[in-house]
Design a protein that fits this description.
The chain contains 19 helices and no strands. It is mainly alpha-helical. The longest helix is centred in the C-terminal third of the chain and has 43 residues.
């Protein structure tokens, strides 16, 4: 590996923070849905469709992102992507018409996913040996959460400084702040991130060639579908919980700034701490199975969602409801940190590991396509309590699905271990 003038941990921290904050703009709705409606003149359905457009484009672009990262300089890709994303933030700050916002979401999918997603992973991976990938990528994931956390709270401060939802310039200030951060970190990456060397490229193991027959084999394996539907269930809860801010505002009349703050704790803070907690539990305790960890989290989530559905909403119990939502968020992020690990736990061969991950991503992230317009439509057409009740019921169904397929996957894993043990004893 080429010697660089910066510590590789500093380089990874910059790459991770850059990658984490890059997704804050396309997912602006997570913390600022109500201001987007009141200040930009959008309906809840339109905000949901904006998210759906980004999610659909991103799903299509994840696979070619890897090809792009292999063909072009990751340093140039990251810098270019951040500069363009910063420019798009400034355009969004002009409050363009709805159709242009949809175009911007597609462009954001191109910059953050096609040009940048695999490039950031690769930029971290080449900084170490094959044995170091876990620690390097784990540290980068933590820095992704930290980058998102820092920018989220700084933008919230700007939002409040400019008058929150009472001043149209407040949301513009948020977008401009993101734009400045993107440009600064894009330039920083140009000077900090090293170029890939021939030696580094040679040190990364090359995957075996995957044939059409291998793809068919992946699709025929029931464990592929078990893992995919577990991911879909967990990801649906993640999407449902993105409405935490609007839920607190619409049901409990919480001030926008306070509700946004709670939303940021749910999204950015728990994102930073929950994944590492799950990894520690998996590595340091007797509960080493990712599928079992997701199953336990699913049980807690199922019980929590029943409480949200059954307990009548009242300002007297607002702190109980906030506690429930944050508890669900914690276990959801733990599960999100584990759900791709189920593919390896299921005994997927290394040759088809990438293909299986691709299939599982395509199926598992499908909620991005339909769930936001669906919930947005409920918000626009139903009384608030009914809209959110429907949302929690949707989450309950998704959790039930994840629990069922966790049980099926655990059964298959147990059978496979028994077969391996029997074969070993025979030998």
């Amino acid at each position: 590996m080429k010697k660089t003038k910066f510590s590789r941990w500093f380089i990874i921290a910059i790459i991770g923070m850059t990658g984490g904050m890059s997704f804050e703009l396309p997912y602006l709705k997570y913390n600022y849905q109500v201001p987007m409606e009141s200040l930009m003149g959008l309906s809840a359905t339109q905000v949901g469709f904006i998210m759906s457009v980004y999610g659909t484009a991103a799903m299509i672009l994840y696979a070619p992102s890897g090809i792009i990262a292999d063909k072009f300089s990751h340093k140039k890709l990251i810098t270019f992507s951040m500069l363009v994303t910063g420019g798009l933030a400034f355009v969004m700050a002009l409050y363009p018409p709805y159709w242009m916002l949809l175009v911007i979401q597609v462009l954001l999918a191109i910059t953050t996913v096609l040009f940048m997603w695999s490039a950031t992973v690769k930029a971290v991976a080449i900084l170490g040996t094959a044995d170091e990938q876990g620690s390097l990528l784990g540290f980068a994931e933590g820095m992704r959460g930290f980058g998102a956390l820092v920018t989220a709270f700084l933008t919230l401060w700007m939002f409040q400084m400019f008058g929150a939802d009472s001043n149209p310039n407040s949301l513009k200030a948020v977008m401009i702040t993101y734009g400045v951060f993107y440009i600064v970190f894009g330039i920083l990456c140009w000077f900090v991130v090293p170029e890939e060397t021939k030696q580094a490229r040679a040190s990364i193991p090359k995957a075996e060639k995957v044939t059409a027959k291998d793809i068919v084999t992946v699709l025929k394996k029931r464990t592929t579908w078990y893992c995919s539907l577990i991911i879909m269930g967990v990801y649906t809860i993640f999407a449902v919980l993105s409405y935490t801010t609007s839920y607190l505002i619409d049901i409990f009349a919480m001030p926008v700034v306070m509700a946004t703050f709670i939303g940021m704790i749910r999204n950015q803070v728990f994102r930073t701490i929950s994944g590492p907690v799950g990894a520690i539990v998996s590595a340091k305790t007797r509960l080493k199975s990712p599928t079992k960890i997701i199953f336990i989290g699913g049980i807690v989530t199922f019980a929590g969602l029943i409480c949200l559905i059954v307990i009548p909403a009242s300002k007297n119990i607002i702190f109980v409801m906030i506690g429930l939502v944050l508890l669900l968020a914690f276990f959801n992020y733990v599960s999100r940190g584990m759900y791709f690990a189920t593919i390896g736990e299921a005994g997927t061969p290394s040759k088809t590991m990438g293909t299986t991950i691709g299939v599982a991503s395509l199926i598992g992230f499908l909620p991005d396509v339909f769930i936001y317009p669906l919930i947005g439509s409920w918000q626009d057409t139903l009384e608030a309590t009914q809209a959110y009740r429907n949302m929690w019921i949707l989450g309950l169904v998704a959790t039930g699905m994840a629990l069922v397929f966790c049980m099926l996957l655990m059964r298959d894993i147990k059978k496979n271990k028994a077969v391996v043990m029997a074969a070993t004893e025979t030998v």
